[in-house]
Design brief:
globular; six-stranded parallel sheet
Length: 220
């Protein structure tokens, strides 16, 4: 998914995949866990020729099986461009659910982009009225933000979404997650929905071994 170096997968990518397999193995043996695991590694874009790569069919199969079995699916996106792939995942989920699922987007402090949907829609309407709107030139992520029902919330305020249901949940700022926050947010996703974790500051899953979580400060 995303962009791939013209030189193909590197040794680091292969090690990242092997690390994730080792990480996920205990969970795959737990039959009671209603979550499917999938890792998507975004290969580096810097200083290399890049091209659009067709989305792996296994991603679509994962979503299809999740919807069919009414299980939540978990997708981990590694890299700074992970949020751009949220658009593709949401689109595939929409096709399987035959509706446009709502989104819960959780973060620690800074979102990284404007969440003002009304302002974005106002600009879009002005372009349509003036006849200068060109869908081919619009960023897919911007269109996704404008046309999707997204609830943004801080991790510290996730208790306010208890009792609500969403079709998709996006968790960024992985270092700020705690078991309670993870359980609280995942439980808001309906059966067949999608949970996406963004590892924006990483380029390899091996960095999970040395990652310092916020909760670790209590143990010092």
């Amino acid at each position: 998914v995303g962009h791939k170096s013209s030189q193909g997968p590197t040794k680091t990518n292969r090690l990242a995949y092997e690390s994730f397999v080792a990480f996920a193995e205990p969970f795959t043996r737990t039959k009671s866990l209603p979550v499917l695991f999938l890792c998507i590694v975004l290969w580096p874009r810097e200083n290399t020729m890049v091209y659009r790569k067709k989305i792996d069919s296994r991603v679509r199969t994962l979503i299809q099986n999740g919807v069919k079995e009414r299980h939540r699916s978990l997708v981990i996106l590694v890299g700074d461009k992970g949020k751009d792939q949220v658009v593709n995942l949401h689109y595939m989920l929409s096709k399987e659910l035959i509706k446009r699922p709502s989104v819960l987007w959780c973060y620690e402090k800074e979102l990284g982009f404007s969440s003002n949907r009304q302002k974005r829609m106002k600009i879009l309407k002005k372009k349509l009225k003036r006849g200068i709107y060109d869908s081919t030139k619009e960023e897919p992520f911007e269109l996704f933000l404008s046309s999707t029902n997204i609830r943004y919330t801080f991790y510290r305020e996730t208790h306010k979404v208890l009792g609500q249901t969403f079709g998709m949940c996006v968790l960024q700022d992985f270092h700020a997650l705690t078991p309670n926050l993870l359980a609280r947010t995942v439980e808001t996703v309906e059966g067949g929905g999608l949970v996406v974790i963004l590892l924006r500051t990483m380029d390899s899953l091996k960095q999970l071994y040395s990652l310092t979580m916020n909760v670790h400060s209590r143990l010092r």
